[in-house]
């Protein structure tokens, strides 16, 4: 079970049942200090009790590292520049947080001279891959301990029994029979009653968004400004990346924007049902697409659209620090230099509607596009254009007719 003797372990710790049990289990199994680590990616009040809980469970030290600005600036925004959407629906809120968290965990491991890291992801999910690919990309010699893949506990009941036997302070409630994961980009729900894809999510489950049916009867409008592909201001007020996403979460959540309920294909091969709230991210995605339609060359846009499934799969499957993602990102960021301007949006009853877009880099020219008389375009030129493009079709038709 143990790859080699380790002297210190840094555990990605959330304070929940799984990582609370893992913390004590690591101490007993490896007979070494365990450092509890949590990355603040926007979980809010969930982080408050971590110090006390981890120390009570036996952690040598507890480190909560604020990476909110880095998370949005260096992970979320580059992903949004790629318009990444997994399987046409999922804006990758959990997927993009994992490499950010794992990177900060590895940086802490180096700082405290730990030779091993651990996480609470199960052997069935995607997170184990996302964490560990990041670990090894930063230190190919690091020892990775994944308890769910090696211990003899197999269920939530086993963990509860272990916690009681070891007097580990935990809070177990039947009020929320599903798992939740929150960061600045989204809130996800999985498991429990949601494992039945026919079951409707409980009305009181949602946190970031109101039911669109109960949203205000009066829409809100805003102008989102972009520079080189990234949002920089709301209604002319410049904000940091994390501040922009937080403000949009509040504005869009009030109108019920950003709910998704989907069955997705996990990297390990099984399907799973996930419910997501991504209010601010939904607004940014819609606005970027609108501004790109104005500022990007046609072939650049079409090439980017072809890359979306590939890029999204790289993020979903944990390959954020892979050479192929860096390669795609370089091309995407080159295109994003032109995506500068303003987009006006209307938020209403769960929807985001683009009502206007403008840019000094606009490729739209009313002189060419007009249906009225113009002096810049000869309509007669279209005949030769059509005949040249139809040539292969005409030849094929002639062959089929035997001529």
Name its key features.
single chain; 403 residues; alpha/beta; Rossmann fold; Argininosuccinate synthetase, chain A, domain 2; 3 domains; five-stranded parallel beta sheet; five-stranded antiparallel beta sheet; elongated
What this model shows, in words?
The strands form three sheets. The chain has a five-stranded parallel beta sheet, with helices on both faces. The radius of gyration is 25 Å and the shape is elongated. It has helices spanning 17-30, 50-57, 68-81, 93-111, 127-138, 156-165, 241-254, 279-295, 298-317, 323-336, 366-369, 381-400; strands at 9-12, 34-40, 61-66, 116-118, 143-145, 179-182, 187-190, 220-227, 230-234, 237-238, 259-265, 271-277, 341-348, 351-358. Helix 7 (241-254) packs across helix 8 and helix 9 runs antiparallel to helix 10 (323-336). By secondary structure, the protein is of the alpha/beta class. It has three domains: 9-70 and 89-165, Rossmann fold; 179-358, Alpha-Beta Complex (Argininosuccinate synthetase, chain A, domain 2); 372-400, no CATH class.
């Amino acid at each position: 079970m143990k790859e080699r003797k380790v002297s210190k372990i840094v555990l990605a710790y959330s304070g929940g049942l799984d990582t609370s049990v893992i913390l004590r289990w690591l101490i007993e199994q490896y007979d070494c200090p365990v450092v509890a680590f949590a990355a603040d990616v926007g979980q809010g009040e969930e982080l408050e009790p971590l110090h006390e809980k981890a120390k009570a469970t036996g952690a040598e030290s507890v480190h909560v590292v604020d990476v909110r600005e880095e998370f949005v600036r260096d992970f979320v925004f580059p992903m949004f520049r790629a318009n990444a959407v997994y399987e046409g629906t999922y804006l990758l809120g959990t997927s993009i947080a994992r490499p950010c968290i794992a990177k900060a965990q590895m940086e802490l491991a180096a700082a405290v001279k730990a030779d091993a890291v651990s996480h609470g992801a199960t052997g069935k999910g995607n997170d184990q891959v996302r964490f560990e690919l990041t670990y090894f990309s930063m230190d190919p010699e690091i020892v990775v301990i994944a308890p769910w893949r090696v211990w003899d506990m197999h269920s939530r009941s086993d963990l509860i029994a272990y916690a009681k036997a070891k007097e580990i302070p935990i809070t177990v409630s039947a009020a929320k029979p599903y798992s939740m994961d929150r960061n600045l980009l989204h809130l996800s729900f999985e498991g429990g009653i949601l494992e039945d894809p026919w079951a409707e999510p409980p009305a009181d489950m949602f946190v970031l968004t109101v039911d669109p049916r109960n949203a205000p009867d009066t829409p809100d409008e805003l102008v989102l400004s972009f520079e080189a592909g990234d949002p920089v201001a709301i209604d002319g007020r410049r904000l940091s990346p994390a501040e922009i996403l937080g403000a949009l979460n509040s504005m869009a959540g009030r109108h019920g924007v950003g709910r998704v309920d989907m069955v997705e294909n996990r990297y390990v091969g099984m399907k799973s049902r996930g419910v997501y709230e991504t209010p601010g991210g939904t607004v940014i995605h819609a606005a970027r697409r609108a501004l790109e339609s104005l500022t990007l060359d046609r072939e650049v846009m079409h090439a980017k659209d072809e890359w979306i499934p590939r890029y999204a799969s790289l993020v979903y499957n944990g390959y954020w620090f892979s050479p192929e993602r860096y390669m795609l990102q370089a091309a995407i960021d080159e295109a994003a230099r032109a995506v500068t301007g303003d987009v006006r949006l209307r938020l209403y009853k769960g929807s985001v509607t683009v009502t206007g877009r403008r840019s000094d880099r606009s490729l739209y020219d009313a002189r060419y596009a007009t249906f009225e008389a113009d002096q810049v375009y000869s309509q007669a030129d279209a005949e030769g254009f059509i005949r040249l493009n139809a040539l292969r079709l005409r030849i094929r038709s002639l062959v089929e007719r035997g001529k």
